[in-house]
Amino acid sequence: MSKPKIVILGAGYGGMMTAVRLEKELKAEDADITLVNKHNYHYQTTWLHEAAAGTIHHDRTRMLIKNVINTKRVKFVQDTVGSIDRENKKVALKNGEIEYDYLIVALGFESNTFGIKGLAENAFAIRSVNTARKIREHIEYKFASYNNDPDAKDSDLTIVVGGAGLSGIEFLGELVDRIPDLCKEYDIDPNKVKIVDVEGMPFVLPPFDRELAKYAQNYLESKGVTFKLSTFIKEATPEGVKVQKKDSEELEEIQAGTVVWTGGVKANHIPADSGFETNRGKIQVTEDLRYPEDDHIFAVGDVAWSSPKDAERPYPPTAQIAIQEAENLAKNIKHILHGEKTEAFVYKPKGTVASLGEKQAIGVVFDHKLTGKPAAAMKKVIDDRYLLMLGGVPLVLKKGKLNLL
């Protein structure tokens, strides 16, 4: 009798942790496990804002998959997923197809422009290692060209950030750390650099405690960031953005050399395109993370609509939730293979920390509010804890942030 085939699509937080935990939960004779990902590396999505600003090298954010998983237990296939054929239990890849008995969909997110005119063409988005690298290189090019290009304009040194959620605020924190170094390196007057954040809500960091969010806003403003709250980007152009204040009909043009959109993400399009019943693009799963219409398919991370019972909104798309879902799912796969009852997924929040650069942060950890350096130290501990869970002490020593404490 052949072993069941378990296929994991995507090597983000949910997919990677599922693969690592299955490797520990199952014996070699229990199942064949295959992980499919378009890159040969896994990357820390929560570190991309640092790579985009240039405060860390982009290679620091990623690790080769073969160095994390046991390739004798988990087969890795580098390929791009095209579609999922539920009827025949096959996944179409760019370079072939793969059959499964149990499928775990962990395909992650895509940037969501909400239909804003010109945004896809004229703005950057922090969504991958390569896009983060492009943002860093673009900003550095603008600074390097300012004193050498006769056509350079002061607005080339203006950076507009769309969105003041977690990603936007963390990127701003890295920018205010990075800009002084760029000015010194390229002999630019810091007063010529402008950083503008445009946010539709009347406050920053909507999910956070208001006191902590105000701390973050005040700190960033003290470093030169201008916030335009209750304001919406209506169009992005090659010269910058056009914005509109809430309850106003007038458009204001902000000329900028760099526009970075952090205003939202959406679930990967492949499940919906493959005929899955979705809610806002997400696969609405049962309490054990299973697709209701197929007992052999599961979903975790940004592509899964996982929520508390009877909640109208899913859990937010965070690494913490994806990791906990992966741990629960690995146990449930083991239960299923052994004919046992599955366990309901119960999210146990451990807190959230938002970095404001290397030495500043805000957050709530185990119901305790933290600001400043203590919060920044806790953010590094959280980052290293994930590495410890994923690859043990060797991975922490190789990729961790302990040396920055």
From TrEMBL:
The EC designation for this entry is 1.6.99.3
* Origin superkingdom: Bacteria
Which top class of enzyme applies to this chain? oxidoreductase
Q: Which cofactor does it need?
A: FAD
Instruction: Name the GO terms of the biological process aspect.
Output: aerobic electron transport chain
- Indicate whether Membrane appears among the record's keywords: no
- What molecular function does GO assign, one term? NAD(P)H dehydrogenase (quinone) activity
Give the matching InterPro entries.
FAD/NAD-bd_sf, FAD/NAD-binding_dom, NADH-Q_oxidoreductase
The protein's name: NADH dehydrogenase
Species in which this protein is naturally found:
Sporolactobacillus inulinus
Instruction: Give the classification, highest ranks.
Output: Bacteria, Bacillati, Bacillota, Bacilli, Bacillales
